[in-house]
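Input (structure):
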């Protein structure tokens, strides 16, 4: 019982965001350590309907996550978004000729990304979004800008789960509409898959003993573990490849190619690495080499 109370208290703390008195000391992205991306002047992309509409509007609308530590996180007090995905979104904005400070971020859950891009609710999406052939039928992807891998998060005192082979009969939580949920259902049918809208709800359920594991990309899980190292741990080796792309409307190839060019430029000039070190790098993994951009043809 005492453990449950402690777990619930911790869950509340994680949900509420850290930095309050009594919360564990946590290093987050420090604004003064983040790179500044000079805004391209005179940039034009008339062949892109998305860019043209944004220019008329005066700013970009970007879809992101708000509950993924070091990747995409919204400060509940200020409404400010931060993390590696947010930095990628800002680099892209600067290259497209829009001041990153003017981006209007919208939180979009995993299951709603394709619809948001298809409806034009957002101009592009940066939020741990795996590029795959099925999704490419519905949206376009610039990138990849990072390669993650599916992994498992368990409570610190869990000894029985060390990899996906140990999941038979266990309750495993993931986000609806995500590739990790699909992989668990397809490749590990003896696991009891539980789906919620977000990974932070899964983590709350893990801490309150409602599920036995959370599964998604190692990047996301390591962020949660780094925020609660006394309660949570990531186990086993990654068991998939999740190349992260920037989601765009499928028909807007001009925008997709412009973002591919922008990514390559920011990787080359060191912005990518500086941004990684100031955000995702804080969860413990040194910056890898960014993967090559895959500028696949239109059609
Ligand atoms: N990268 C995986 C996906 O795109 C999992 C993370 C997420 O749900 O955003 O489905």
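Output (sequence):
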């Amino acid at each position: 019982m005492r453990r449950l109370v402690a777990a619930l208290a911790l869950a509340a703390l994680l949900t509420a965001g850290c930095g309050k008195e009594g919360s564990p000391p946590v290093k987050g992205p420090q604004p003064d350590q983040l790179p500044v991306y000079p805004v391209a002047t005179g940039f034009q992309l008339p062949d892109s309907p998305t860019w043209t509409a944004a220019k008329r509007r005066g700013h970009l609308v970007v879809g992101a996550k708000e509950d993924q530590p070091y990747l995409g996180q919204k400060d509940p007090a200020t409404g400010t978004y931060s993390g590696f995905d947010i930095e990628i979104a800002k680099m892209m904005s600067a290259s497209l000729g829009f001041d990153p400070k003017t981006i209007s971020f919208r939180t979009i859950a995993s299951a709603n990304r394709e619809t948001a891009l298809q409806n034009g609710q957002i101009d592009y999406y940066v939020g741990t979004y795996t590029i795959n052939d099925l999704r490419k039928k519905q949206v376009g992807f610039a990138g990849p800008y990072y390669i993650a891998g599916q992994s498992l998060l368990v409570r610190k005192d869990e000894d029985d789960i060390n990899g996906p082979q140990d999941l038979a009969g266990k309750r495993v939580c993931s986000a609806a509409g995500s590739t990790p949920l699909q992989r668990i259902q397809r490749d590990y049918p003896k696991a009891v898959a539980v789906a919620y809208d977000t990974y932070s709800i899964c983590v709350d359920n893990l801490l309150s003993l409602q599920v036995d594991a959370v599964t998604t990309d190692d990047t996301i899980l390591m962020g949660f573990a780094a925020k609660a190292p006394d309660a949570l741990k990531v186990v086993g080796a990654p068991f998939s490849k999740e190349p992260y792309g920037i989601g765009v409307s499928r028909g807007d190839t001009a925008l997709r190619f412009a973002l591919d060019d922008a990514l390559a430029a920011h990787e080359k000039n060191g912005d990518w690495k500086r941004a990684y070190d100031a955000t995702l790098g804080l969860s413990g993994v040194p910056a890898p080499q960014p993967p090559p951009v895959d500028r696949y043809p239109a059609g």
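Notes: Residues 15-25 have pLDDT under 50 and may be disordered. The pocket of glutamic acid is lined by residues 110, 127-130, 175, 178-180, 216-217, 242 (CB under 6 Å).
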